[in-house]
Specification:
single chain, mainly alpha, 2 domains, globular
Length: 169
């Protein structure tokens, strides 16, 4: 918070990596169909339609469905927008090992409900159609053009990431 990375940022990242492992694909892949480009958005869509297991890499022919559902459920908990809604890493380990039940995730994170992901450069369009660099907390947004690659969310050294870290999002 307040410009410092916390363990809750690591929990979020763990959730994304776990989904990438289960699905066998990166978090974002512009070569896929429009509804599958963003892994988190696709995973949430499948979860809401009780089709969690469809996120599993199609190259896997034999897997334990209960374990996969457990990993996906934990991943969705880890990727909640609010750090306070994410479990601690020790709780994640307990859920994955089966020592603790995985609570049902009922609400999509605000960064998926408030934004429509619709272009392939990593920028987002808000519900009013204006492109922004993606300020998820409805504070002042930073407008960028698609030619400004230094502000791309894909550039980890760019000013947008520093702004997100500074604001503790």
């Amino acid at each position: 918070m307040r410009g410092r990375l916390t363990e809750k940022a690591d929990v979020f990242s763990f959730g994304v990596v776990a989904l990438e492992i289960v699905s066998g694909r990166p978090n974002s892949d512009s070569s896929l169909q429009q509804d599958k480009i963003y892994l988190l958005e696709w995973a949430w869509h499948l979860h809401e339609n009780n089709r969690d297991v469809d996120v599993v890499d199609e190259r896997l022919s034999d897997f334990n469905k209960d374990e996969v559902k457990r990993v996906i459920g934990v991943s969705l908990l880890c990727t909640q927008a609010s750090p306070s809604m994410r479990p601690s890493m020790s709780r994640v380990v307990a859920m994955l090992s089966g020592d603790t039940e995985v609570p049902t995730v009922t609400s999509r994170p605000s960064y998926l409900t408030d934004w429509k992901f619709d272009d392939r450069t990593g920028f987002m369009t808000d519900i009013h159609g204006s492109q922004t660099a993606g300020d998820y907390s409805s504070v002042a947004t930073t407008s960028v053009t698609t030619t400004d690659l230094n502000s791309s969310p894909l550039d980890a050294s760019g000013p947008m990431l520093r702004e997100i870290i500074r604001e503790g999002r």
